[in-house]
Batch of 2 targets.
Target 1
Amino acid sequence: MKRAYLCLLYVLYVQIAVAQQPFAIVVHGGAGYFGNQPEAVQAAYKAAMQRAIDAGYDVLSKGGSATDAVERAVMVLEDDSLFNAGKGAVFTHAGTNELDAAIMDGSNMKAGAVAGVTTIKNPITAARAVMDKSMHVMMTGRGAELFARENGCTVVKPAYFYTKHSWDALQNALRKEQKQKETNKKKAMLQPDNYDEKYGTVGAVALDKSGHLAAATSTGGMTNKRHGRVGDAPIIGAGTYANNICAISCTGWGEYFIRLVMAKSVSDRMELKGSTIDDAAKDMILQQLPSLGGDGGLIGIDKQGNITMPFNTGSMFRGYKKWNGEGDVKIYKD
Ligand code: ASP
C-alpha cells in the first residue's frame, strides 16, 4: 500500500516537473534589407514563418526533441521559395545553386554539416544524416551528395532550386559588379553584391521538454558568391552552435560571422562573463559585428527558455512560440 502511494507520488512529481519544463522554438528567415513592402507581401512571409514555427512547436509539444523540432522548422522554409534556402536559393557567379546547412544537438554536442551541395532537396536533412549516420561533422560537394543519397535524402535536379527572383538578383548583381569594376576595381572585389537586399537564410533554435537545446541553419549563401565559397551557416561555432548553455543560428554577411566565431562567442560570453543570452547576443551583433564592417543578426535560446533575436540590418524575418502560449512573428525593427 505504502509502495503504491509512493509510486503515485513519484508519477505526480514527474508529471508536474514535465508540465513546468519550459519549451520553445525560435525561427529566422534571414536578416537583410527588406524595404517597405506591401501588406500582402509581408503577410505571405509572416504566414510562411508561422508555418515553420508551428511545425517545430508541434514536435516539441508532443515531447519530441529539440533536434527534430529545428530540422522540421528549417525544412518548411527550405521548401518555401520565398527564402534563400532549398527551393529559392540564391545563385552563384557561375549561375549555379550551392547550398550549405548545419545542425547541432546541444545535449551531446554532436553536429553535422554539408557545404556546396547542388542536388539535395533539403540540405538540413543531409546535415542531420552526417550527424547521425557518419563519424564526421562536415562533408562537402559531391561526397556530401553521395552520402546524403545513400542515406535516404531526397535528390532533385539542380534546376529544382531555380526561381526567377533569385536569377534576377544574380543578373542585377552581375551588372552592378561590372559597373563597380569600371569605377573602382578593389572595392568591387570586397563588396557583397546583394548588400542592399535581404539575405534570406533560414534557421531555428529550440529548447525541448527534456531541457535539451538544438540549432539548425540552411542557406543558399550570398548572391554572386564564387563557386566553392562556403559561408558561416555550415561552420559549427560560426553560423550554428548548440551546447547545454544556449542554441544559436545566424544570418548575415557570412565572412564576418566566421571571423567572429559568432555563435560560439555568444555562448562564451554567457559562460565566462555571466552575461544573459540577450546581452551576449546584442554585444556580438550590435557592437562587435558592425565594428568590423559586417551586418546581420541571430536568434538564440537558453536553458530557461529566454530568447534573443538581435539584428543590425533593416529587417530580419523572425518569430517564436513558447510553452506558455507567448509568440510573435516580426519583420522590421518594431
Ligand atoms: N550567412 C549566409 C552566408 O553568408 C547568408 C545569409 O545569412 O543570408 O552564406
Target 2
Amino acid sequence: MTETVLLVGGGGREHAVARSLADSDAELYACAGNRNPGIARLAAGFETLETTNPTAVTAYAREVDATLAVVGPEAPLDAGVADALDDAGVYAFGPQQAEARIETDKAFQRRFMKRHDIQGCPDFETFEDMEAACEYVDEYDGDLAIKPAGLTGGKGVRVIGDQVTAEEGKAYIRESGYDRIVLEERLIGEEFTIQAFVANGQVRVTPAVQDHKRAYEGDEGPNTGGMGSYSDGGLELPFMSREDYEDAVAVLEATVDALEGYKGVLYGQFMLTDEGPKVVEFNARFGDPEAMNTLPVLNTDFLDVLVAAREGESLPKLSFDPKATVCKYAVPAGYPTEPEAGTKVTVDEDSAAAAADDADGEAILFYASVDEREDGVYTTTSRAFAVVGVAESITTAEGIAEDALALAGEEGLRIRHDIGKPDLVQKRIDHMAELRGD
Ligand code: AMP
Ligand code: GLY
C-alpha cells in the first residue's frame, strides 16, 4: 500500500524530512505557515496554514487522506497537533502534548529527570518568584544558567560567566517578564546532539552532531536557532570517545523508559564535561539544523520506520552512510536581533551539485524560512537556507558546503564560515583535552 504522509512545518529540517521521504513509496503532502519551495517541489500538495491550529492541520490531513504524519517543529507539538492527528486516525510521528513537555517545559524536564533518577542532570532549582530567583543567584556558589521554562526558539537562555555577569543575569530575570524560570549549574565542556527515533518503547539512535548556536564566528554574539552543524563518518565526534557517545545514548534510553508511550524523535542536547555527558535539554523533534546532517546519510528507508512505529512493530535497525557532513545556514542580515526580511534569494542548485561532484562529494540545498511568491523566493526574519556538504572527511565536506554557498551568493545574508573548518574542530578537541587534563 502506498502511504500518504502529511508533513507539518516549512523549515530546513522539514525540507530534509521531505527529501528523505521522496525516495520512499510515499505520497507526500505538506503544510506550513510559509511556502517552502524545496518542500513544495517534492510534495503532491502544499497548503499554507497556521500549523499551531490543530483543527486546520487535521482538516488538511483528512482532505488528502493522510495515513501518517510527521510533525517537524515544536510549536505544533506544544499546541496538541499530534494529539489531534492521532484522534483523527492519522498516526503522528511526534509526541502528544503531554509527552512533548520534555521539551516545552524545562522545569518539568528537570524535575522529571530528578524523579526518575536519570543520569546527567545538573543541579537546578525552579522559580515562580523572580525576587527569590535573584536571591538564589546571589547565594549560589558558582555560575548559573538562567532558563525560561517555556519555548523561546533557543534564544531565551542566559549563562552567567559566559554571556552575562551575575548583575546582568538578575536584571534579565527581573525585566524579561517570564513567569517561571529554571536556574541551573553552568555546565562547561563541548556540546553535542544525539537524535533518536522512538516508538513502541524502542530507541534507534543516529550519529552525534555538533550545532553552533552563537550568531557570529568564533562563537561570539547572541544565541540563535543554530547557525550550522557537522557530523563525522562514525557515531561520535572528533572531541569525544565512543564511551561518551554510549553514555549519552544510555541517558536517552532511560528517558524513553521513564516517559512511557513516547513516539517521534527524542533529541538529546548534551554537554560533554570532564565528568562525562550532562543533559542541556531534550527536544521532542529533530534538530534544525541537525536533521540536515542526519537524514542525508540515513540509508534505512525513513518510511519503514514510520510504518513500523504506527503498526506497533519493532523499528528497523538504522544504517548510515559512513560520511561526514557539514551544514551551514545563510541567515538574513541582522539575524537574530534585527533581521532584515524581504531579500530575494537566488540559488543555483545545479551548479552547486556539479561543483560537489567535482570535489568527490555531494552538496545539498535545503530551503528554510523563505517564502515563495509569484516573482521569486524571499527571505523572512528567520534562517533562510542551508547547504550541506557530504564527503569522506569533515574538511572535504566543509569545502563543498563553502563552494556551494559561494554559488548561491551572499547579498543580504550572513553565514558562519568557520563552522566545520579544521581550526574550529581542533579548538573543540583541545578544549576537551584541557578539561579532562589529558
Ligand atoms: P537551550 O535553549 O536549553 O538549548 O539552551 C541554549 C543554549 O544555552 C545551549 O545550547 C547551551 O549553549 C546554553 N546552556 C543551556 N543550559 C546550560 C547550562 N546548564 N550550562 C551551560 N550552558 C547552557
Ligand atoms: N539546533 C537546535 C534545535 O533544533 O533546537
